[in-house]
Amino acid sequence: MNRNETAQQYIARILAFAEGQDPWAVLKSTADRLGALVAASAPERWHQKAAPDTWSAAAVLAHLADAEIVSGWRVRSILAQDGVPLQPFDQDVWARAFGYERVDVHEALATFSATRASLLSLLARVEPERLTHHGVHAERGVETIAHLMRLYAGHDLNHLTQIERLVASAG
Questions:
Q1: Residue 101 carries which DSSP code?
Q2: How is domain 7-169 classified at the architecture level of CATH?
Q3: Where do the domains of the chain lie?
Q4: For the segment 140-165, what is each residue's pLDDT rounded down to a tens digit?
Q5: Which one, of 155, 7, 131, lies nearest residue 67 by Cα?
Q6: Structure pTM?
Q7: Smallest Cα–Cα separation from 140: which of 155, 156, 123?
Q8: Which CA distances in Å does 101 have to 47, 55, 66, 114?
Q9: Any idea of the CA torsion for 114, 139, 142, 97, to the nearest 10 degrees?
């Protein structure tokens, strides 16, 4: 979330990326799209920044990997306990604390891919009534599993576009 937008503005912006698309198809395809970008781009391109105060493509991929870990935890929490509180995190604090700019892109891709595959497998096997559960995000309010899948799909598309632009313009 940008520092100058409200939670509602963030939700609307992220959901707009996936408007008219099947969120499940997006979620299933993201790891392969990221893998193709990693395979097709020289490693040094991933660590170049468009401006000093922005993230490199590698940092964006590290963020996606960490966000996927958070997503998996949130979904598991919701599936296990309807109405569970959901804790936010500050992506910029995590980027500094976890050295996003020094991440190995292959490691970040492996983390993202394995965690996403685990999440999709979990959602495919749980009792269908659990998919109606919701959590209560401290900043964004009530979030159902269906809403989160749309939000995560938009998040994927937002950052895929960002990575594609950064890797293409690096050099």
A1: G
A2: Up-down Bundle (1.20)
A3: 7-169
A4: 999 999 999 999 999 999 999 999 99
A5: 155
A6: 0.95
A7: 155
A8: 7, 7, 14, 21
A9: 10
